[in-house]
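Protocol step 4 of 5: obtain the predicted structure for the target chain.
Materials: sequence only (see below). No template structures provided, no constraints applied. The aim of this step is simply to have a reference model before the mutagenesis design in step 5. Sequence pasted as it appears in the construct record:
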Amino acid sequence: MKADKPYQPSLRILARVEQITILLNAILQFESPADMVVSQFFKAYPQLGGRDRGEVATAVFDVLRHLKRYRIYAQSVKGSVQRRLALLGLSTAIGMETLSQALTDPAEREWLEHTQSIDQSALAFGVRFSLPDWLADQINALPEPEALAQALLKPAPFDLRVNTLKARREDVMAEIMSDQRQRFSPEATPFSPWGIRLYGHPPINTWDLFINGAIEVQDEGSQLLALLVEPKRGEMVIDFCAGAGGKALALAAMMKTTGRLYAFDVSAGRLARAKPRFARSGLSNVHPVVIRNENDDRVKRLAGKAHRVLVDAPCTGVGTLRRNPDLKWRYPESGLTEICAQQSRILDRASQCVRPGGRLVYATCSFLPEENELQVQAFLDRNPNFELTDAAAILKNQAHLTVDGPMVHLRPDQHQTDAFFAAVMTRKAAPPAPARKAKLELAPAPDSESGIEPAIEGAIEPTLEPVTESKESST
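Step 4 output (C-alpha cells):
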C-alpha cells in the first residue's frame, strides 16, 4: 500500500476544506444514506490516503451530528454555508488551532474562533443537541433526556462478536493485542459473553480473523437480543426480518449448527449480501428465504411449528443515530404512523408461526414508545393466547445485566449500546385434547425428535463462495 505523503499543514488543510465542502453538497440533498455517498466520493478520489479519508469522514459525520446548531452558526455571517459547515466539522477532526492557523481569510478565522465561545447551555434543547422538532419532543418525554441526547451525538464504538464455533473470545483478544491492532484498544464487552469492543476505524475486512469467520461486526445490543431468544440445539427457529444476517448467525451458533434456522427477509439483495457471512461462519443450519411480504405462503406453511421466532422489526432506527446521524434528517415524522402499522402486521403474522409453549421476541433499534411498549401492549390485547415473559430476568441470568423489566430498554448513555428495545412473549400451551374412544392411526414420525419439518420450498441454501464484501453490517 502506498504510504501517505508528509503532512503539509496549510495546503493540505485548505484542500481538505474544499473536499469536505463538495461532499457535504452531495450528502445534504438527503437523497441517499450518508455512508453510501461517502463511499462513492472516496471511489471518485482514489488519491486520498488513509489519513485523508479519516479526516474527511470524521468531519462530515460531525457536521451531520450537529447540523442544526452548526447551520445557525454558519448562517450568522455572509458566505457559503456549506464551506462554513466544512470548517466546523474539520475543526473537530484535526483541532481548532491547527485549522485556524491554516486559514488565510482573517474574517473566516475570526468567525470560526467566535463559534467556540458560544454558550451552548443557553440554546434551546433541539438546537443544542441538533434534533428535528418532533424527535426533540419525543426525547424530552423520556427519563433523563439530556443524557440520552448527548450520548446520541457521540460516535459509536466498534463492536465485534466472536463466532464460538471457530474461536474463543480470550484467544481472539490475545491475537488482537499481539500486534499493531492493539491501537484500537480492544476490550471485552461488559454484558455479551461473545463481544469485543474496539475504538477507531479498524480495517477488519482485511484481518484473517474476519476472513476466516472467527469474528463478525455486531453491536452488543444485537448480541444481547440473541440471548433473549435463547435457542436450543435441534430446535426450529425463525428470524423473521433477517436483513444482513447478523442475528441469524448469532442464533445459529448458539444452536451449535443443529436444528433449522429460517432467515426470512423481503429483500433478496440483503439476503444475497448475507451469504458470504454464512459461508465464512461454517454454519450449516441457516436457510435464507426471500418472502414477498409477511403473508407469503412460505410463512403460512410454518404456522404453529417454530420453537422460537425473532421479529427484529423494521423501525425508525433512531436508536442508531450514533452510527447513522443523517437518519434524523432523512426520516420524517409522518413516517412513524406507517412504520408502526407495518410492525403490527408483521408481529401478528410472525406470531402465528410460534408453537404452543414457544417464544416470540419482538425488538427494535428505537427508543420511541409507539414502536416499543405501546406496540407490544397492543399485540397482547389482540392476542390473548400470548403472555408477557420477564425479559429482564433472562438478561440477568444470561448476561449479568440488571435492567428494569419486564421489557428491556437499552440506551447508549446507560449501557454503551445502541438504543434498543426488546420484549419476550410466550404462546400459552394448548389445553389437552379430550380423550377419544376410537383408536387413531399413528401419524408418520417427523424428521427428528424435535419435530422439525423438511426445508420449505423456496429456501435458498447457503452458497460457499469467496468473500467479496468490504463492509459488513453492524447488525
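Step 4 remarks: DSSP finds 21 helices and twelve strands in the chain. The two ends are 30 Å apart (CA to CA).
Proceed to step 5.
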